[in-house]
Every structure is written in structure tokens, then in C-alpha cells.
Design goal:
- The chain has about 325 residues and is of the alpha/beta class.
- Helix content is about 45%, strand content about 20%.
- It is built from 11 helices and 10 strands.
- The strands form 2 sheets. A 5-stranded mixed sheet has the order 3-2-1-4-5.
- It is globular.
- The relative contact order is 0.16.
């Protein structure tokens, strides 16, 4: 049976979807991330193969029957990255089909906006990608957090929350829901414990805690510091969108779409609503669009289009 594979390779999850040529889902699996900056070649190849095997095993699909594979992945930021990733996926044993690897931000644009408009992603990391009606595309951001990138992302919020806890240990801010929640959740009861924790997460593989939900809960309990962190995160996210809109001159198209993607903003009502308020104030004709399908579903749809010779990617 012929089928296609769509992959959403993000900073937190690696999602694989196998679908028939009619679009029917034949198998789906979500596993641990496969970031090529954090895994050596052998481990990367092994992990990708393992995730795909679990997905295909759900319908007893054979690798040689796959007719197209599309992977939208984090970390595809240069021509060198593209060459490396196509090499990785080209070496998956048993596959003889065309393989397309694109940045996950471009996949998000297709997922939410069908390929046109300004797409903003705030998940583990943050980036904006867009395409105007003349076909010109551009990306803004996506830089590593070590060089002050990933603005407004989950990693960015985690750093701001930990910084707030440091200020609490300094005595510069009063105790409140946010500092209390973080101490309890992470088991940090002293300045030394916070410093040791920061050293651990600051080394490879750079696994930052997901503290956005704590900030949301604390803001809901009236913590002004948590509310300020989320408001500032929304401002940073909007700046990514604003730079992209200006670069592509999307505002000159009249009514255009701004898509939102990524669990950090989609799962945080305060972050999302503050972003929408900023966008509406500056671009009142813009329409905010939320996703109606998963990125893996969109990748599988792109794979079908590639097989039929219809894709614009």
C-alpha cells in the first residue's frame, strides 16, 4: 500500500504521521526530540528510525511503499543544515522516496495559513516566517537563546521566571505565588540550589524547564511579576511579527493574516490575548488565525502534494 510520511520535528517532541494518498491517517506517533545540534549522528539516526518504526508498525506499513516524506524541523537554519538533514533522511534504510526537509517555521506557515501571510511561532523557541502575495518569503529570529534569541518563547519565559526567583533570594522582591510555585515545583530552597540548578540546565543538552504554565497560574492568582513576564513575552513575540510584516510589506496588502503557532502562546491565554491586542492596535485590518490541524498533518499533506507534483515548497 502506497503512503506518505509527514514529520514535525520540534524542540520538545518528534511527531510522525503516516497517511494514505487519500489523506486517511494510518499511524501516528510522538516521541523524544531529534535535534541534530544536540545528538551525535549515530544517535540521531537511531532515534529517527525508532520513532518511524513505531508509527509504521501501527498499520504494518513497509518502508519501501512510502512514496514521499516531508519533515519540518527545528534547527534548519542554513544551507549546511539542509545538506546535513537531507543526508540523514536519505540514509534511512528501506526508503526510496523523495525526501523534503524544511524549517519548522515554514511548515507552520503552511499548517496555519496555507503558505501566505505572517506566521509567528512561540513554542520551546521562537521564530517568525512569512510569504507575501508576490511570493517573497522571509524569516525573523530563530536565533539561539544564548545570543538573546528565542524572544518570548518557552525558554525565554523560563529564564525570566528563574531570574525572578533569584531576585526573591536577593530580597529585591516580596514573596508571592510565582516564587513559591517555582521553589516547590523545582525543589529549590536556597541560593546555592538555584545556582546549581542554573549550571545544570546551562550545559548540554540545554534542557530548560517548562515554567510558562506556572507563570499563567501565578498571574491568575494576582502575582504582578508573573503578569509582567507574560506581558513582556507577548511584546517580544509581537516584535518578531512586526519586523516580518515590515520586511515583507504585508501591511500594504490591506487585509492579511497573522498565524499563531507553538504551545507557549497557544496554551497561554494571557500571552495570546496580549499579543492579539498589540497586533490589533498596529494592524487593525489583520486577521489573527489559529491552527485547525497539526503540523504533522500539514507535513503529510505537503508530502502528498509533492508526490502529485503540486507543492510550492
Amino acid at each position: 500500500m502506497d503512503y506518505v510520511i509527514g514529520i514535525d520535528s520540534g524542540g520538545t517532541h518528534y511527531r510522525v504521521l503516516a497517511a494514505g494518498l487519500d489523506g486517511e491517517s494510518l499511524g501516528e506517533y510522538s516521541g523524544s526530540p531529534c535535534n541534530h545540534y544536540r545528538l551525535d549522528y549515530a544517535e540521531l539516526l537511531c532515534r529517527i528510525n525508532g520513532h518511524i518504526d513505531v508509527c509504521l508498525g501501527q498499520s504494518h506499513l513497509r518502508r519501501e511503499h512510502c512514496v514521499s516524506l516531508v519533515c519540518g524541523t527545528t534547527g534548519l537554519d542554513s544551507e549546511e543544515d539542509a545538506v546535513f538533514l537531507h543526508r540523514v533522511y536519505g540514509e534511512l534504510e528501506g526508503f526510496h522516496c523523495p525526501v523534503t526537509c524544511i524549517n519548522d517555521a515554514e511548515l507552520a506557515l503552511y499548517t496555519v495559513l496555507d503558505g501566505f501571510g505572517a506566521q509567528v511561532i512561540s513554542g520551546t523557541g521562537a521564530i517568525a516566517f512569512g510569504r507575501n502575495r508576490q511570493g517573497r518569503s522571509a524569516r525573523i529570529g530563530g536565533w539561539h537563546s544564548a545570543i538573546f534569541g528565542d524572544e518570548g518563547s518557552g525558554v525565554w519565559i523560563a529564564k525570566q521566571v528563574l531570574r525572578h526567583l533569584g531576585r526573591w533570594f536577593d530580597g529585591a522582591v516580596p514573596d508571592g505565588p510565582l516564587a513559591e510555585m517555582v521553589r516547590e515545583t523545582l525543589g529549590i530552597g536556597s541560593r546555592k540550589a538555584l545556582m546549581e540548578y542554573a549550571v545544570r540546565i546551562g550545559a548540554p543538552p540545554w534542557k530548560h524547564p517548562d515554567l510558562g504554565p506556572l507563570a499563567d497560574r501565578a498571574a491568575g492568582q494576582g502575582d504582578p511579576y508573573a503578569a509582567a513576564i507574560l506581558k513582556n513575552a507577548a511584546r517580544e513575540t509581537f516584535l518578531l511579527a512586526d519586523d516580518l510584516i515590515t520586511l515583507l510589506r504585508l501591511h500594504e496588502e490591506g487585509d492579511f493574516n497573522i498565524g499563531l503557532w507553538g504551545g507557549n502562546i497557544l496554551n497561554s491565554p494571557r500571552h495570546r490575548e496580549a499579543f492579539i491586542k498589540l497586533a490589533n492596535e498596529k494592524y487593525p485590518k489583520a486577521r489573527i488565525v489559529l491552527p485547525r490541524r497539526s503540523a504533522a498533518q500539514a507535513a503529510a499533506a505537503l508530502a502528498r502534494e509533492n508526490f502529485k507534483g503540486l507543492s510550492v515548497v
